[in-house]
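Subject: mismatched residue count in predicted assembly?

I count 1389 residues in my input, but I want to confirm that the predicted structure covers every chain. Input:
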Amino acid sequence: MTAVSVAAEWQQLYDRYYRKPELYQLRWNHVDLSRNKVACSPFGGPIAAIRDDSKIVQLRSESALRKLRIFTSAGAQISETVWKNPGGRLIGMSWTEDQTLICITQDGTVYRYNLHAQLIEPNLSMGKECFENSVVECVFWGNGVVCVNEAFQVFCISDFKNPRAVRMAETGIEDFPLCVAVIEPQYTMSGNVEVLLGVGDHVMLVEEDGVQQVGAGVGPLQKMVVSRNGRYLASFTHDGRLLVMSTDFSNIIFEYNCESALPPEQLSWCGMDSVLLYWDDMLLMVGPFGEPVRYLYDEPIILIPECDGVRILSNTSMEFLQRVPDSTVSIFRIGSTQPAALLYDALDHFDRRSAKADENLRLIRSSLPEAVEACIDAAGHEFDISRQRTLLRAASYGQAFCSHFQRDRIQEMSKTLRVLNAVRNQEIGVPLSIQQYKLLTPSVLIGRLINAHQHLVALRISEYLGLNQEVVIMHWACSKITASLAIPDISLLEILLDKLKLCKGISYATVAAHADKTGRRKLAAMLIEHEPRSSKQVPLLLSIGEEDTALTKTIECGDTDLVYLVLFHIWQKRPSLEFFGTIQARPLGRDLFISYARCYKHEFLKDFFLSTGQLQEVAFLLWKESWEVAKNPMASKGSPLHGPRIKLIEKAQSLFSETKEHVFESRAADEHAKLLRMQHELEVSTKQPIFVDSSISDTIRTCIVLGNHRAAVKVKTEFKVSEKRWYWLKVFALATIRDWDALEKFSKEKRPPIDPRERAEAYARIGMAKEAADAASQAKDGELLGRLKLTFAQNAAASSIFDTLRDRLSFQGVS
Amino acid sequence: MAQIPNLDNAPLNFTSLRDQSQKELINILKNIRGRKCLVIDPKLGGSISSIVQTSLLKAILNSSCYFFWFVSPEAKKQEHGVELRHLTADPIQTECTKVVYLVRSQIDLMKFICSHIHNDISKGLQREYFVYFVPRRAVVCEKILEEEKVHHLLNIGEYPLYAIPLDEDVLSFELDLAYKDCLVDGDTTSLWHIAKAIHELEFSFGLIPNVRAKGKASVRVADILNRMQAEEPVNASDVTVQHFCSLSKIFIQNRSQLLRINNGAVELDSSIMGVQQDGKKIKVPLNSSDKLFKETRDLNFEVVVQVRPLAAICIVTAGSTSKSNLHEAGLHGDVNYLQSQTVSELKDFVRKLNSLPEMTRHINLAQHLSTYTSKPAFLGRLDMEHTIVEAQSYDMRELLHSYGFEHMATLNNLEKAGLLKKQESKGNWLTVKRALQLVVDDTDTANPNDISYVFSGYAPLSIRLVQHAIRSGWRPIEDILKLLPGPHSETKRSGFASSPSFDSLPGAPHTADKVGGGRRSLVLVVFIGGVTFAEISALRFLSAQEGMAYDLVVGTTKIVSGHTLTEAFVENLG
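Triage response: the counts match. Full output below for your records.
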């Protein structure tokens, strides 16, 4: 295609060019825009259409059923559903940023649909005032809506992600406003939405907490629309003028007198440069200067504002009205001698093997880099693939003669164009311009593709752009499960795993949770198997009732916290005996449970031990309890409470004796009970509460100290205390009370089985230096003497005794 | 007095690790507005004292117990003061309406919190409670709080403190009860925590490519660590630590410790330090921040005597607290010898020299030690400990008779832990001893070249194993490993981003292991169940050897002595 024919399609508005390439021939049949309410999502989004119930239905021309249909921008139907929602007439319909279709009926009910025409529960409401006084007008923006009802009250939902209807300040107006517009929260000073109501000859600015009158005398205004950046307001006055003002009404930017005083059906901004007015069959484009451009349409159209132009939807086609980018103008403007135009021409000559190519290049040598840049930029703005190719080839041709040019620019642009061409394809139907694509960002685009179930192209794009594929695969897996009710679990699992394995670190648990939610518990269980993160796997296993698997898994993974989580879950769900059986088979589970129960659930633990035949453990518990009984503040020493205590110990003893392995424990418990009884008796007879809970040795000692030798001997024989220990205890006790006579008598009684060394230490321990020294010297142990001396370091007299004795010892050693 | 260890020369960036922990703690406290009472479980308090800077922590020593009262300078201005209490059964006495509990996630601590709250409720006190679990929330603890009907009154958070640097090359996981929990109760929570701590280290310092483990618990930790890597992969691109050896305690040797060096500081009666504050205890830091201690700590007794005949001897006595493995008898002999001959003279001598303040401190310590060790009661305790642990010929009945039946549970614990069983065969031990050259007769103390030097002729098994593991892996000593209890494992790991060039160089480990800048690469040696100071000394000795390609960093559940080890098992029924 030559340069001339390209520019021939352009229209000139003052010094600017506009073009209106056709994006698609629509694939739908029998959709008449004039008979339908239509909502189109920006950024090449979907189109929702529903028969307009305010218009007369032609009998037999269509089904009596009212259907909500959703199409791609190319007119291919995505989904449909029968509209049978109550709530009266459909007043407003629009898409949110995350492509949820919002439908607001007369009674203020807000119905939300996803792209697949499935109603998203629950329905919202604009409030009871709207229920009582019908909603008359809705104005949407990005993620919010403003409604005006019959009582001239204004309501607002400022974010559908967190839908909460707020009533705006009371307007106090008496007539229905002529027109309504909103300034998005992101462009207002307060950060809250501002509503503009055309009332009388002025405008009311309504906020949540106040109303003010602005722009007195500019109106009456019949129609208003705020520009995309929230700074300008285009309006149509009652006397047929187009007024463009700043949104603070401080100045009028320009004014244009239209031929008709009839307000246009649609008023829209085309980018930031011009305003479009649409009456019945004429579309008028007005700019600040020069004669407006007229387009004629013999069918109804809908204007869809985009950031860089307007898409025009008609019954048969989708066009994109856009200001021709500067780079494109520089190349294709008729008679252009810009370097970029010459470069483009040079390629043409080169292709035709004409020497003029070289001539052209020489002409623009100094500005070649700009020319290359312009070609790349122009290629980006093209919708026509062959023209993109030619422009990029021109760029590449020019680049060959450039010494310093960022070489990856062409590659980068090719990459972007590949993505754009892929989504612009009729089958996908997302006609994004490069500017829209950059504003939307690739990740949001992928999100939208996924939402439209275009998983393959989404996957390829994210792969191509090096983005994380997890989102795509995860969404695919969940959608696949929802859509594959007929496929048996095993084969579906295979299909899923085949794709899930593409992505390392993907959360199998999330997919499994989805499977469970759609009622495929078995599939869920099989999927969880593949989840490597136990912390995600286990709660899910519990929620689908796979407690035993969960327990096995947690025990394998070694995270005791998770084991407890599972244990408590099972404990709550199952009867005790069954629970005991479950944990008995798993040592870690069992041990952890015992640790817990030992602290807080004694009785329950006893049951467990009994049911699993671990009598000795029960016995230990009982024994432990016996001390707790003693510690009870109600139990003073020597009180009858020792009765129950001894009973507990005896019970423990009998349990120990049930098994052969615990003879020692059984005897110990037996002796303990016996000891307690004796101590009790001793306390009663001596009237001194000092016996209970001391050891056997201490008891003997205390007896001797109290001079009750008979009792001491009794304890000794009863517990078969060894002679050695008995001797030691007695010497020690006698030394403590300094009963030397008794001690001497005792030592002469028979040959002491005790080592003099020990005796020396016993003396030393109670501070008797001389006796200790004697005993040590008796033992002939110089080292001991030295050590004992230290003990009496402060005592000079004692020290000297030791020194003398040691000297004597060493002397003996020599001799 | 600097409380927290100086980590400037650490082979791993421990400072950042500690800074992180500090910051998290301060944030927790800052985020709770207003005056608050901080209640710390005492064990944790010890751990925290070695991570929080002195400038932020003002220690006031109290007569009954030591507790801190710390107020950060800026917080003081804003009246965000913190009162500090230790968690005990006694109800909290405070004017503050906000009570912050900082506790390890241990079941038995919950009942204290519950009783405090119940007590407040019964008195009609309205307070706001915050519970921060260290290192993470635990289902079982919360379950108890729920059952006690206090859970809804609490704001629950976590303080992820997994590892604490105690010294430039020592990292403690502060799991005092690891050994007892695993062996007696079968509760392996600590193993998960160890793996988690190592995995967290990997996030900071890169994936550890070689993992070798010996012993049941170690192999389990290595296994959990691999699972964690599968769940939350660490990139292999930045490898600082080359090897990771994990050893569970294989044999329990009788270790005694004269003073309990806890968290790198000794607690002493102030009278010992010659300070006129009666009854108060002072924390004396004993770690690498103390230059003298650092120098003498790891030297063998005899060498020190040679090098600095006079001044050093006193230090050795202090230093020997860290050298718990000096043979018992030998140690006493030495101490006695020193005491009777030199300590008092030395003290005067050093005073005259007007030496470093540290010196006086050590002399004080030395003196204290010798008086302490010569007390017969101490020797008695030693005998008792010895007997309990070895239990070779001791009649358990006698034990109960002498000490009371309440020790039944302790005996039961020891039995469960396998500490009371007689060794079934001694054959293995002899083979192992010979094969690994555990006893070296001719140690050249003046010019040492083997770790046995540290122990005057005995090379500890654990360190020998580490030596082999680093040098050549388990394979060459496989036969011997089989003779030792517990399994062993060896894994090579690589992350997603492992460079192929690294994998293709298995034959040249020395070149590959050399990290750029001439810095040696690192080996992390983890002792599960605890490590003694002597073992650390031996590792340091190993690391200092010529031809050694690695720096060694020690990770442990706790630094132990015979006392702390057996203490865990003591459970009175009464």
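Chain B has 24 helices and 16 strands. Marking this ticket as 'not a bug'.
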